[in-house]
Amino acid sequence: MTWEVLSMIGTVAFAVSGAITAMEEEYDILGIYILGIVTAFGGGAIRNLLIGVPVSALWGQGVFFQIALLSMTAVILFPNNLLRHWQRWGNLFDAIGLSAFAIQGALYASKMNHPLSAVIVAAVLTGIGGGIIRDLLAGRKPTVLKSEIYAVWAIVAGAAIGLHLASTPVELYCLFVLITTMRVFSYSYDWKLPIRRLSES
What we know:
- This protein is mostly helical.
- Helix content is 75%, strand content 0%.
- Helix 1 (2-24) packs across helix 2 (29-51), helix 2 runs antiparallel to helix 6 (116-137) and helix 5 runs antiparallel to helix 6 (116-137).
- The longest helix has 26 residues, at 86-111.
- The mean pLDDT is 85.
């Protein structure tokens, strides 16, 4: 049940994130749906390739595809005056998606008895993969690689699960709240990792 709930939360959050990004870039209706789907399922597809799960496993997630389509349709139908507040709500959706998908990816790898390193990689790829693909298709520099602390929280989620610090449903939901909260703090207070520049500014 925990896995299903986290998958649903992540799917909705990232589908909405992709759809809004497409609308900001003035994509047509088809482009909005395509970018939303890629954002919601791209990270999982990359993860499956690297941990040995057939990519075709994605096609067994019919319910999640339907949830993603409904979420994007709702966003398209939202009045413009509500969408103007996207910058605030969009970051929250992104934080929720990151946390839910990172935990879900780590659980996936852990249940396949992969080592700690693979669990962390699965958490990172599932948590940030969709966002990277979204930004690249939208012609943007991937936010997760250049600003704020983002992927670090996926690493923390993967490490917690790989080290068996969180395994019961209650512990997993607490981890979900913790990772989401820390991601919100990191963009609210502009926390950043050190930058090594090659040229003086």
